[in-house]
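Exercise 7.
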Amino acid sequence: MSGLPQYGQRSDASAAPDCPRHPGVRAVDYCKRCGRPMCIDCAIPTEVRSICVDCAQELRRRVSPSSPVVTIGIIAICAILYVMGWISPAAERALTFAPVLGYSEPWRFLTTAFLHASVFHIAFNMLALYWVGRAVEPALGHWRFAVLYILSAIGGSLAVLLWCFVQPASFFTATVGASGAVFGLFAAIFVLQRMSGSDTTAVLVLLGINLVYGFITSGVSWQAHVGGMIVGVLVTWAFVALAKPRRGMTAKVQEWWARAVALGMLAVLIAAIWGAYALLVS
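Solution. The predicted structure, written as tokens, is:
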């Protein structure tokens, strides 16, 4: 306690921490929102105290959310590939996933999420994708949303592969559709609402109804739904947890950490796929 300044005394200026955005420059205040130290160039005045540049940019994005360009791009790709399937069924078959084919042609784990079996199938999935994508993409950001979709799609195909341990005949069954990835997006809404303290009843009911529909309806790959949902929960939780402001860490550094974790999650899925095949074909 002897080192603390007494009433009427100035604190030691050299004891102030460095600004995380400008190493070597002493901070003059702490962001009232995230608690990071700020130098004079990084302090953005508000009605009461100041916030840092990173928090100001985040708040600006929330006020003016960007358009869901990745969502629209995925819908466009799905529409193009659906037309391609009519023109060249052989080209569509080269992208369809079946566990027996994924062993030697691993791209099918992802490409099958852009294919659909009928007009009703693509219309329902694209409507759901647009509805949930325009809410999730602005909240996570473009590249995080793209990673969420890709990993959820791969997770759905992985679940189909794992089901072969229970039902070996499904090793030769083909599956197509974006529903596994879409379930990952629905799961993302649940995580975002849960971690923000919002009521999650509506999204839980929606997830429950769609899961039950997949279980009771023939020809629906409920395994992909479950796999995509589980991966969606994990990916979204990781992104939200890494995005929380941390003292002494800039938003740019957190962005690099998020990218590293995304690559790590992809590596885990690839390892799980490799391990499953190693057991199935041994």
